[in-house]
Design a protein that fits this description.
By secondary structure, this protein is an alpha+beta fold. It has one domain: Alpha-Beta Plaits, CATH 3.30.70.2660. It has five helices and nine strands. The longest helix is centred in the N-terminal third of the chain and has 12 residues. About 30% of the residues are buried.
Amino acid sequence: MARTLLLRLAAPMQSWGRRSRFEHRDTGIEPSKSGVVGLVAAALGRRRDESIDDLTALRFGVRVDQPGSIERDFHTAANVAKYGGGTEALVSDRFYIADAVFLVGLTGDDELLNRLASNLESPTFQLFLGRKSFVPTPPLVLGVVDGELEDVLESHPWLATSHQTLRRAGDGDELRLVVEDASAPETFEDDAVVSFSTREFTARPVRVVFVSPPHEPRPAWSAGG
């Protein structure tokens, strides 16, 4: 039977860059595979020039439990060295996701998944969600469970905050689920990292579905309040 490691990625701010260049630092609307591979590699103490083949071989999926909102940080750095001498102020646009909650699944070798779960609880290097100041809120590790990636991500209880579940539960809303699927790809994501040291990436096939995970029922309010 397949085994899947479940992670809860939540923080006041997180950023998952896809096409960041120089003064423009973007973010995807959900965690990227390269970002999550970097997260678990940091937990294991892997350095940028070390092999990550075992980590990239894991099948990856993410469920958007609370999408949050995309925010812009207008960032100014003073006294940045210029080519040819002197300094200047460097202005950049940096985007991030505020108040989001994601359920991430990694499916693969059971021994590796259990090692990842253990190291994520006691990481070698600092863990962050896209930027060093974006520290994940606990709990990060939800455990290693039996089941195929899509089945586990669909059946796990909704992780949104109590305010969000109260507001949305029972409204017929479905959650966006993006799963790596070479057998029936609908689109491709350019976030499959080959090497962090050379910043080499390739495309991976994904499929997008919408699911209704179990959640606490909406309270029944009486006429008297």
